[in-house]
Amino acid sequence: MTIKQLSIFLENKTGRINEVTKILGRHGISMQAFSMAETTEFGILRLIVADVDKAVEILRAENFAVMLTDVICIKCSNEAGALATILEHLAEKDVFIEYMYAFSEGNTASVVIRPTDVERCVEVLQHCQCSLLNIG
Amino acid sequence: MIWNPNKECMSRDEMHALQSKRLQKLVTYVYHNVPFYRNKMQQMDIAPEDINTIDDITKLPFTTKQDLRDNYPYGLQAAPASEIVRVHASSGTTGNPTIVGYTRKDLAVWSEVMTRCLTAYGVTRDDTFSVSYGYGLFTGGLGAHYGVENLGATVVPTSTGNTEKHIRLIRDLKISGIACTPSYALYLAESLEKMGLTKDDIGLRIGAFGAEPWTENMRKEIEERLGLKGYNIYGLSEIMGPGVSYECSEQNGSHICEDHFYPEIINPDTLEQLPYGEQGELVFTTLTKEGMPLLRYRTKDLCTLMDGQCACGRTAVRMSRIVGRSDDMLIIRGINVFPSQVESVILEMPEFEPQYMLIVDRENNLDTLQVQVEVRRDFFSDDIGRMLQMKKGLADRLKSVLSIGVDVRLMEPNSIERSQGKGRHVIDKRVLK
User: Quick one: which of A34, B94, B118, B268 is 20 to 30 A from A81 by CA?
Assistant: First the structure.
């Protein structure tokens, strides 16, 4: 019930993110989620795409440092307090979250979570009947 | 002012005779006490008896930094361990530092030559003098320190760091002289201005600057901003430390303490001795050293030697400013750094590709060293904390090897230019105007 996220190491240079998106666009790979973690000198671009294997292959061919990371994508309703309920469950069961990012559209919201212990997180979420996305 | 006119103003004939006598004694001494030199001389079919005057020095073998490393730690030491009272060390290119042992007499000679320098700059026993070279294995701090004491001035061993406190001491103790790197002098000027003070609030009048290359323009700027007169001082730990040569009031080259350190200029390719006035690699023979005497040590510093009496009255040969190096050594904040040192650290760490670039720059008058290195794909992590740890791991390791702080930059794979043949690994952006 996990999905594969692309993590790409980028130096902080103007236009570098654009190069990644251009390459993916040229190969017809669409992005479903996108987040950028950064320090003063480098960043890690995190992407959820439809065709993971192909994306890795073409980015590596272009010399990018790419790796795959298991993350969990939850679908929940786009209403006040919905995320709080889910996070409450995770906290109760001691699931530590390294990072997360989220986006919403219409009535639904998607939350990408990178927990320290992926299996345990999936277990807790299934137990509280969250809907987990399974793509890629 | 001249501390030791007998030696500093000796006639050339007398100096020639003194150097000849000392060289003969030195060659006999190392032949019998240092197997390295005995073997070399035997291979070249020379015996101590073949050396009669200082001009015979060209018959003798050279010594290189590599020889010092190969004989680490005490292989070139001539005096028995019981006679050694202190050691200093300078950085080596691939891990082994260069160890130099001093006997009590060596330290006395060092103080003497340092005192000659300080006296030439106009320092007297009435001065209070701040030594702001690093104290420790580096020869700068302790070398200058004992020179000031020997002269009878008051020494304030400020070492490096805590610039604000230093400026307060300069003001409150009425410090009139300072020994430091020229880049630290500029940093000091800047800190002074930041504290809302000017050169009129302090009473510095003499600066002894060395341990890194500097220019006439830097001299003017330092003199202007600190309100002092700046003099060049030259030295290297293999030969002694600071005090090997010094500028006089004429500031037309630095007088070499020739009665202790015999200078030659050679063509670094053919190793032939060159006449005065021609530029080449500076070579020193330590005429009086007991602990670790060296024959014809190749400094890799490029300069010219000038003879002829100086208007100051000294007769000692002068050396020009160092115009460059015959190897790839960098001098960063007064510390010798070889790109190969960085390389060997990077090669030891599997996280990084063996590609690197050193960017040397000068920010706020302080040298900076940035090391750009590519992270191996297998070691790249989605966890920022881990990436930062990897960076810190390399920075810490480099700091312990180089003795200076390094700004590590993690780079994308294949982003550092691959050069053909002998890699160009350094970009030095410091413009010495």
Answer: A34
